[in-house]
Design a protein that fits this description.
alpha/beta, Nucleotidyltransferase, domain 5, 296 residues, globular, 2 domains, 41% helix, 10 helices, 5-stranded mixed β-sheet
Amino acid sequence: MPKEGFLLGIDLGGTKIAAGVFDWKRQLCSEITTVPTEAGQPGEVTLGNLYRVAQRALEGRRLIAVGIGSTGPVDSTTGRVLEATSLPNLNFFDLGAWVREKLNAPLFLENDANCFALGEALQGAGAGHKVVVAVTLGTGFGCGIVMDGAMYSGMTSNAGEVAFCPVAGDTYDNMLSGAGVRRFYERVRGEPSPLSAREIGDLADGGDEEALRTWRHYGEALGAALGTIAAVLDPSICVVGGSVSKRFPLFEAPMQKRLRSILAPAAAAAIQVARAKLGPAAGVIGAAEYAFQRAL
């Protein structure tokens, strides 16, 4: 890789687009720049925002490769966004061709959860671990796997796509997302509720018993989900990120207990569970790391 060139890492989500520039030593050399995605607008609007955030981050630097972690699914081989519910205006769009035309650089495209996992594995909470499972708890449930410092995507690039696997009488995506917290709260109360995960967290912080029970149930379900994944992959650490992870202290104990109850004794004793360290920068860093590995 030419030492005079720079890498652009982009986290393309349904709500916002974040970008940062990295040098050949993989060090961030710009601030993380963010713009709205405007996924409900025509595709040209989102692409215009993507171009704008890229130019803001680059500030005229010579670009040699672009890594994008996009809400999925994506085809990393062809550089296409597939049928992504969070980016309906870019479904089946050839993002690789667009990047080559607009930014004059090759694109290395991956799922955003995989990029989050790679960022945390190499520069965050999972640094130094051989096998890392990283999950994001937010609008949905995302999962990425990193082995020996590289993404593990499986035969069809679908490794870690567990969103529709069953847990707690529903799916990972429905029960372990932010909306899932509300569903557990509704079960506890026995009636519908308009409250968000953040509001239920605030109630729990204030000592509300129903809210505290909600987070205990959520932690048990998350522990069951992580335990199932860990029983297959035997990771040394599970990294937990996303907006719901801000309430980690409310669900950590039941999560840890349930997770370890599923595993073999040696695995249960060895595994670590930690909150993500990189915050919103994780996806940007992971996308740049992915581009760095592929460009080499």
